[in-house]
Specification:
Blueprint lengths: L21 E4 L14 E4 L24 E5 L4 E8 L6 E4 L6 E4 L5 E3 L2 E2 L8 E4 L5 E8 L8 E6 L13 E2 L3 E2 H4 L3 H7 L8
Parallel strand pairs: 2-9
Antiparallel strand pairs: 1-2, 3-4, 4-10, 5-9, 6-7, 6-11, 8-10, 11-12, 11-13
Length: 197
Amino acid sequence: MLTSCHTARIAYDERPENKQPVLERPAWPNYNLHNDRSFAAFSHIQTAQKGEGIYVQNEDGSMTGLPNTIYRCKDATYLCLDYIVPEKQELWFRRFTTGSALIDADTGDRYLLQRVEHFPIDQCFLTYGQKNETIRFVLVYPPLPPSVKCIQVYEASAESSQWMNGTGSITKPISIEDLRPHAKINQSSKKQERIIR
């Protein structure tokens, strides 16, 4: 993926909408990674428009599994991951991991994941229902200084289980401007240039 890492002056985004999901079942006190019945379960998760985010390429050449959108705000940086729930998939699980970060592609500075709004970190959890809808997870990182133009999204490795191998991942560098919610609007509204002689 070729991308330009140049960006103009910063105009901050409004934070993304993110309603409180319904906790259908809390995690067991003796949560066990190898027992999915011990996972917390949620429904009525925030939805997003299909096609709002973009898929980013990992360093190993694979594509990220979820579209990414970044909201660059004064108080924090919000990374939205959108998942299209298949028609036949009533139940799904996910885990977010401590040590995950946004990395400044130019300096190597790491902006560590602070929390995932409404969901646990370092524990698998289940989502129910919402077939054919795009559900959104909002990850919160420290605010990025204006000097940060390109980032890599790093997902830390974690303990493996029968459902996941726990391997971490890191994306190729990508311009923050290409990930922001206005990027597609700006691209589609650009006037076609003509050469007149």
